[in-house]
Amino acid sequence: MKRMLLVLLALVFISPMISIGAEKDSISVKLVWEKEIPKGVNDFVFLDENGYNVFSVQCKNPEKALKEKRLLMVQGNKLVWYEGDAMRVVKEMTIKGSYAISKNGHNIAVLEGLKRNDKGSFEDKPATLRLLNWKGEELARTQFSPGHLDYIDLFSLGNDSTVILNLSGGEGLYYTVWMFLRNGSELKKVFSSDGYIWTYAENGSIMLVSELQKKRLIMDGSGKNVGGFLYNNPRGNYWAGISPKGNYIAEVTTGKSVVIHNKYGTLISEHHVQGQGNYYGAFSPDEKYLCMTPGPWRVYFFETKTGKMLWEYTHPDSFILYMKVAVSSQDGYAFVYSQPWSCPSPDREINPKPLLSEKSVHIFDKKGNLINLFKIGDKISSLRITSDGEYLMVRLPSKLQLYHIIRGGKDETN
């Protein structure tokens, strides 16, 4: 049935705003804002008036924030603040070193003073770790020596307090994770362990640390161990995600399994993965649903609380390279972006340029029905939805696009 629907869709013109099916059940998108990304931008975040990412659960009024349009961008060696539809520059600040913006946009961690020696590892000289707020104001700092380390990954939990470092050395022979907490104007190291942090909750409530491929530690934002779990055999990790409020943890592990735990580490469900590569997933903002792409061409959709798979979908074009997903709350609409690896050749008795091999966003309802799709002219690097389910953000290589999500064929935007 799904394959037939896709064939029918291929015969009609697909525009950025269409509706399919009965009006009350239809869903479409309308492009309401588009802007070129300034040259040299490495990272960016939309912020509300309180300094929270508009596409995080901590933003209380996404619609208001998107009308005001505050953006913080990392542009070359600068933090640049923009405002308004025209993206007027209101502030700039030079950063000297590596950086990490928290998922909720509220903090920026900066590591300065790193220099590599002739062997490629860092020199044994003091480096400065700084924690900034969303305005660029320094909250705390500390110094440490990165001598003999090969790589340092930086994380900020966005709670005005916690900074985490993944450290590796010996050409990958050892990994160590350090956690720092703010104490006045200083950052104090409160935790150190073999292993590394996989990911953390959007609101900074918990993080997931892997130890020696078997053991997973679940820690809160203050460094307290609140749970964990252990695999009988070593399991690497292709993808790990924590739900926005920190109540659920999902992994795609070696052994080809999608595994879901609660925030204390209790196993909810485990499902064998049919496929390899392209591991990507997203929780709905209310944490009710989890959508996974556990391999090219495939989509799995779960009810998070029970771990029950509500539906699965296989894309008819086996030349899809990868997918990215976003899920709305309550109504459970899944927005699935697909990109082809290459177009099949005519000698394989397949249309060399089928419509569905183009870059597209497919829209599914919570029963797994494909109810709409719209084409995207370029590769998508990120796909986000607001917590109220009203707006979808698409980042293309050189553009930002903002879509209003229209249900039931009614568009109430001006």
UniProtKB/TrEMBL annotation:
The keyword Signal applies. Keywords: Signal. The keyword Signal applies. Residues 1-21 form the signal peptide. Gene3D superfamilies: YVTN repeat-like/Quinoprotein amine dehydrogenase. This is WD40 repeat domain-containing protein.
